[in-house]
Amino acid sequence: MIRIVAPHMARAVQIHRQLAEVTTQKQWVLSTLDHLRVGVILLNAEGKPLHLNRAAERLATGLSGFAARRDGLSVSSATDTARLRRLIADAAGSAMGQNRAPGGCVRVRAAGGSDKTLQFQVVPLPLGLSERTWEQSLHGSCVAVFVSVSGGPRLSWTRVAAMHGITRAEARLASMLADGVSLEESAAALLVSIQTVRSQLKSVFAKTGVTRQAELVALLLGDMLTDQVDAQSGSAR
User: Is the pTM of this model over 0.90?
Assistant: First the structure.
C-alpha cells in the first residue's frame, strides 16, 4: 500500500510547492505595483480589469471621470470610452497572436472642469510573457494600461539616453512616443521632417533590440516603473 500511495503523495507535495511559489510570485508582483506612482491596470482578453494598483484606484475613485468597472474601463466621454476600449480589444488580440495591433494612447480631459489631462497608454503583453509570468501569476492578464495625469511622473529623455546608449535626439523622440505623441506630432514638435523621425526611430529600434513601436513604448514604460521602484528603494534605505 505504501509503495502504491508514495508516488501520489510525492506528486501532491510537488504540486502544492508549485502553487505556493506562484502565490508568492503573485503577491510580490502586486505589492511592487502598489508602490508605483503611475497607475497600472491589468486586463484580460475581454478587457475586464483584473488588478488596479493603488495609484490607479485613487484615480478611479476620484473626480477624474475615470472608472474601472466589471465590464471594462470608462471615462466621462462615451466617444473616448469607445476609443479606449477599442485600443484594449486590439491590444488583447495582439497579445493572443490574432493581429499586430501596437496598442496606443488615449488622452482625455479630466472631469469636473479640471484643466488636467488623463493619459491611458495601452500596451499588449506578449503571449510568451503572459504564459511565463502574468498568466500564471495574475490569472490571464494580457493587456496593461498605464494611467497618468498631466504633470505626473515621467522618465526624462536624458535617462532614456543613458540607459539605452542612444543619442539625445533619439531619446527625445523615444520619450515623446512613450508619452503617446504620434510620429507626425513628434516631428512637428522637434522641428524636423517626418523622414528624419522615422530614420531616428529605426536607429532606436536597432539599438534597443525592439522591432515595433509598441515594444519600444512597453520598454520605456518598464524603465519608468523600474526607475520609480529603485528610487523608492533608495529612499527607504
Answer: no
